[in-house]
Amino acid sequence: MTQLSATAPKSAASYVEALLASYPDFPKPDILFRDLNPVFADAVAFRAIIDDLADQHRGRFDAVAGIEARGFLLAAAVGYAANVAVLAVRKGGKLPGTVLTEEYELEYGSARLELEIGQLPAGSRVLILDDVLATGGTIAATSRLIDRAGYTLTGVGVVLELTDLHGRERLGTTAVHAIMSI
Hints:
By secondary structure, this protein is α/β, with parallel strands linked by helices. It has a single domain, classed as Rossmann fold, CATH 3.40.50. The protein is built from six helices and nine strands, in the order ααββααβαββββαββ. The strands form two sheets. Strands 5-6-4-3-7-8-9 form a seven-stranded mixed sheet, with helices on both faces. It has a two-stranded antiparallel sheet with strand order 1-2. The radius of gyration is 16 Å and the shape is globular.
């Protein structure tokens, strides 16, 4: 645990601001990668993030869907804190059984997401959690998977929103809570 947790301000956003790392030209030239791993590695900061995400949506979801990979961290912790089910939205080809598949575009490529069907009763209220909202492609694809599975999307929670990439626009009227926007 870093020393920051003992002295930093108490809001989740202030922890993110203090601990967020940035890497220019990663994973390719002209991309500024925002790394939340230092934030997650600080126990006090991570607790503040989980509490913020859970509190913003409390009582409005029966399950959380975490998007591979860092979304898994958030979904598992919020699911535990809220005593609700956790769904894993995986990269293509990593789930057994019958799955729904969605193709989507990233800011630096394309990919495929999958969700196993029949994990929850039809109509279950699902909150999507991920670390970063950038162009919105990953979350939009996950939203389509949730809908196609017969669940009700109640909102999206992210730690960081990169506003200059306009990802929120791809999510239509879905309620989005971002702990920090830059």
